[in-house]
Amino acid sequence: MKNLSQEQDKAEILRxxxxxxADSPRQWGRMSAHQMICHLSDSFLAVxxxxxxxxxxxPLQRTVIKWLxxxxxxxxxxxxxxxxxxxxxAGGTRPANFAADVTQLEMLVELITxxxxxxxxxxxxxxxxxxxxxxxxxxxxxxxxxxxxxxx
Length: 152
Hints:
Blueprint: H1 7-17, H2 33-47, H3 59-71, H4 98-114, E1 123-124, E2 128-129, H5 132-149
Antiparallel strand pairs: 1-2
Helix pairs in contact: 1-5, 2-4
């Protein structure tokens, strides 16, 4: 299964990320490409504890939905609401300079992949506590989902 701890998967995601432009058209959803970049960065900042994301979890989300989202061979569904702290139309970071925001996201990918053991057992706002391998799987799938949203 693809995840960001595997160098070839990380390289693939970063290559796809570098094809996004500020005016890349979305295939679904409300976010612009620039908002998506900031959303991914905010999500990684939440993983590292630099940003808070309010919990929206229960027994179903922490078990069945977590397993389906991380391990079932299905693409993530479109239109699932995000937490307000990582929603650029609510409390998320507002897009500023596209190139700088992409660079920040690349640096955060590097941070979470090189210091992944630091996040072992940290709590995802929906899926609850995740192991290092689960965080790396989530990170790949989250980026893949939003890159596909923009045709990349």
